[in-house]
Specification:
With 123 residues, this protein is mainly β. The chain contains no helices and eleven strands. It has strands spanning 3-7, 11-12, 18-25, 33-39, 46-51, 57-59, 67-72, 77-82, 91-98, 112-113, 117-121. Strand 4 and strand 5 form a beta hairpin.
């Protein structure tokens, strides 16, 4: 059974940094493309970043240059380093996985999801 568990979300002031982690189990990690999505209240789920099984990274326009995704093949986890946080980054952040070498920015293309972790950026 594939499981994804996010951690690291909390309340932080604007301009600071935060790192989210997604621990995985039940999958052959090296064969999966991993992604982060986020969903703010009353909004649709938004693509944030993804890293392919081969290590290729891709970012959403709103976070490019501020957020950085990485994967640890020893610990089978994915991190999202978020710098220069802004109030509009406030959302529930979800880790997602797909058994493919190709990145997709479409949430429906990821069959496996974590439960989410809440990030709030406010003074």
């Amino acid at each position: 059974q594939v499981q994804l568990v996010e951690s690291g979300g909390r309340l932080v002031p604007p301009g600071t940094s935060l790192r989210l982690s997604c621990a995985t189990s039940g999958l052959t990690f090296s064969r999966y493309t991993m992604a982060w999505f986020r969903q703010a209240p009353k909004s649709t789920r938004e693509f944030v970043a993804a890293v392919s099984s081969g290590g290729i990274e891709f970012y959403g326009d709103s976070v490019r240059g501020r957020f950085f995704i990485s994967r640890d093949h020893h610990l089978n986890l994915v991190n999202l380093q978020m710098d220069s946080l802004m109030p509009e980054d406030t959302a529930a952040y979800y880790c997602a996985a797909r058994s493919s070498s190709l990145i997709s920015t479409v949430a429906d293309n990821y069959p496996t999801w974590g439960q989410g972790t809440l990030v709030t950026v406010a003074s």
